[in-house]
Amino acid sequence: MKILIVSDTHGRHRNLEEVLDREGPIDMLVHLGDVEGGEDYICALADCETHIIAGNNDFFSDLSREQEFFIGKYRVFITHGHSYYVSMGTKELKKEARRRGVDIVMYGHTHVPHLEVDGNLTVLNPGSLSYPRQADRRAGYMIMEIDYNGKAHFDQCFV
Question: Which residues pair with 78 in a beta bridge?
Fold first, then answer.
């Protein structure tokens, strides 16, 4: 199973289109917020199971603010992250993820890629496809793959 994880596209779809072409068929798309009205286009473009949540810039959106679901055997919690003060670190987000009993928590908002395994919790942020903020300013996304044994593998990628 191949999952594309993106965030913070802010209504700009060129890099997402390129990534979908590059990565080939995917089984699921997870978008961690700040789509700014592009959710219908993104769902049509991905043509697979799609999970999209609202970010702090999705003012008039009907998208949910958070979701929980399974990817294979993994219980996943997705949030944009601003409500958990992720700009100041992941402490509050990890606390909430553990309270919910999830295996993986995904967030956006900071526009900076992050992948951390803290005990039995995986915390990740794919960065931003439109406005990256890390030192090299490369547009980022992640690929999560579930292998034949059901184990998750993560790869940080750049456009």
Answer: 67, 106
